[in-house]
Specification:
This protein has 10 helices and 6 strands, in the order E-H-H-H-H-H-H-E-H-E-H-E-H-E-E-H. It is of the alpha/beta class. It folds into 2 domains: 150 residues, Rossmann fold (3-Layer(aba) Sandwich); 77 residues, Putative phosphatase, domain 2 (DNA polymerase, domain 1, Orthogonal Bundle), CATH 1.10.150.240. Strands 3-2-1-4-5-6 form a 6-stranded parallel beta sheet, sandwiched between helices. It is 43% helix and 9% strand.
Length: 264
Amino acid sequence: MAIQALVFDVDGTLADTERDGHRPAFNAAFAQAGLSWHWHAEEYRELLAVAGGKERIRHFCEQYDPDFLARPDADELIAALHADKTRRYVAFAAAGRIGLRPGVARLVMQARAAGTRLAIATTTNPENVTALLDACFGPGATSWFEVIGAGDVVPRKKPAPDIYTWVLERLDLGPEECLAIEDSAVGLRAAVAAGLPTVVTQNPYTMSDDTTGALAVLSDLSTVTLADLSTLHDTVHPGSQERPGTHAVRSRAWTSPTATPTSA
């Protein structure tokens, strides 16, 4: 069965947003609020197991600053911190501080040329998505993506499958007609739970993630074409209702028919 749509995650998949955008934006917001919190790279790697910025702040407080949560205005403060972080992230993106990961632009352009539909399934805010796409592809690039599922449009965030289900309903496609591209175990679990065959492109934050269930695990998309992904999809998931990942490619670099393998 041919791929009808590519469904991209955003953070860590389209771009190294966690490294270059979110973590520095969180830390700047904390400093502005007079908080002593500072998320170092290794600590942030662990926090990424929690999807969603507000949820991540709350989880951090539960572990390291429970007194903050005891404040009567804790919910409002978390929302304000997250809003400030988002403003800073958007500014970082607009300034060109966050670039696309290798191969992403080429794959998006190939999909557009081939008439393959594009969609996004992410836990990040819609403002963050728009800022990144406009900065990296040009103004109006959000229109290239037929459906953008982002932020709080669903009650449960990844690893729950809700955001993927939401996107599929609006595409009016079955999961087997799509291919998800994710970067983490959290995202992979969400996509697979929704029934989508999924390719994982790992980044420095997710190199040690459990990728059981992925069709392939790649270091990036630099040597992979739309034709390669279509071949993989059709070979491993040929239109049956078999759960994605049953015949997962377990090597870190998938050997495509037209590309030189990469190593993670």
